[in-house]
UniProtKB/TrEMBL annotation:
This is Germin-like protein. It is found in: Secreted, Extracellular space, Apoplast. Its main location: secreted. PANTHER family: GERMIN-LIKE PROTEIN SUBFAMILY 3 MEMBER 3. May play a role in plant defense. Probably has no oxalate oxidase activity even if the active site is conserved. PROSITE patterns: GERMIN (PS00725). Mn(2+) binds at H112, H114, E119, H159. It comes from Manihot esculenta. Keywords: Apoplast, Disulfide bond, Glycoprotein, Manganese, Metal-binding, Secreted, Signal. Transmembrane segments: none annotated. InterPro entries: Cupin_1 (IPR006045), Germin (IPR001929), Germin_Mn-BS (IPR019780), RmlC-like_jellyroll (IPR014710), RmlC_Cupin_sf (IPR011051).
Length: 224
């Protein structure tokens, strides 16, 4: 009986530890400003830490997020992500920020997901049709957002934003990881290097093989 209790407790502890390690670890110091120079530094969360006595205000700041970005690309949107690479002071703090600019009449932040972060989005300009897809069975949860509206996209779930206004759209997103990562579905499926065998994608998406090859050529993962 004692043995079974021990194994149950061990299993529960392992489960708790695996859940805790799925997110950025809590810091054990006030901050750990990331630097690339290992000299006289400590390695934490994939970065070396600057001597805290040498940190300055610029380690924790970024300027220019108010400047509109160019949306003249195929999807009509630009994401400006501020993570540990742009603000070294967020190292170990488990947070990052992004500005998203959308072109009028259909600017799209395409379906994607963040493997390491939940996202909360605040609309500043435009009218955004947003949504995310639950894990199987897949259900779409969507809403039209106006300036001042907020929406949450849970960690690891596919989501998107689409500007349906005749004017430019702008949103600010906060993510609970210093390096949330992003997997854009179309690019990841049809633009891998090396490319996925088109027979696999043709069967998975129930498409003609030539259609798959055309999509791979468009996204840079051509088998030709």
């Amino acid at each position: 009986m004692k043995s079974s209790h021990f194994f149950l407790a061990f299993a529960l502890l392992a489960l708790a530890l695996s859940y805790a390690s799925a997110y950025d670890p809590s810091p054990l110091q006030d901050f750990c400003v990331a630097i690339n120079n290992p000299f006289n530094a400590v390695f934490v969360n994939g970065k070396f830490c600057k001597n805290p006595n040498l940190t300055i205000a610029n380690d924790f700041s970024f300027s220019g997020l108010n400047v509109p970005r160019n949306t003249g690309n195929q999807v009509g949107s630009t994401v400006t992500l501020l993570n540990v690479e742009q603000i070294p002071g967020v190292n170990t703090l488990g947070i990052s920020l992004a500005r998203i600019d959308y072109a009028p009449n259909g600017g799209l932040n395409p379906p994607h997901f963040h493997p390491r972060a939940t996202e909360i989005l605040l609309v500043l300009e435009g009218t955004l049709y947003v949504g995310f897809i639950t894990s199987n069975p897949n259900r779409l949860i969507s809403k039209v957002l106006n300036p001042g509206d907020v929406f949450v996209f849970p960690i690891g779930l596919i989501h998107f934003q689409f500007n349906i206004a005749k004017t430019n759209g702008v949103a600010i997103a906060s993510l609970n990881s210093q390096n949330p990562g992003v997997v854009t579905i179309a690019n990841a499926t049809f633009g891998t290097n090396p490319p996925i065998n088109p027979d696999v994608l043709a069967k998975a998406f129930q498409l003609d093989k030539q259609v798959v090859k055309n999509l791979q050529a468009k996204f840079g993962g051509s088998n030709n």
